[in-house]
Write a structure and sequence with these properties.
This protein is mostly helical. The chain has a 3-stranded antiparallel sheet with strand order 2-1-3. The relative contact order is 0.07.
């Protein structure tokens, strides 16, 4: 599967529009085909990649499948999902905010993270975090 995905990416990156295929299904350069008098059919590489991935069970035109796949990747990578959460906002006490700002100052001095990355890590919106820093 990994090789199929890499091959698909390469096929889409290296093509400039259409690829040309002979009657027996081999790809051929248009100029070479013209020079040899070989009839060709223009093929959209995107369509070919979609067919190959679909045959392998990756139905990327099915939005439900893509949503489920994205959720799976999100859960595996640890970024989580908003599904199943109550949607209730977390409130921080003034002392918690102060501790977070102090921690940020240590992280900033070490040059380890951006403000946005730090805010994501602690589960706070970037603009909220900026407001805390202001004061």
């Amino acid at each position: 599967m990994k090789e199929l995905i890499k091959e698909s990416i390469n096929d889409l990156k290296k093509s400039d529009g259409f690829v040309y295929v002979t009657a027996d299904g081999n790809k051929i350069d248009l100029h070479e085909a013209a020079a040899k008098g070989i009839p060709v059919t223009p093929v959209n590489p995107k369509d070919e990649v979609i067919k190959k991935l679909d045959a392998a069970g990756l139905h990327l035109l099915d939005s439900k499948f893509v949503n489920d796949l994205n959720e799976l990747i999100s859960l595996i990578s640890g970024s989580g999902s908003s599904k199943g959460k109550t949607g209730k906002r977390r409130t921080f006490t003034d002392s918690e905010k102060t501790k977070i700002v102090e921690e940020w100052k240590k992280v900033e001095a070490a040059g380890k993270k951006t403000k946005a990355a730090f805010a994501r890590e602690i589960g706070v919106g970037y603009q909220t975090f900026i407001n805390w820093l202001r004061g």
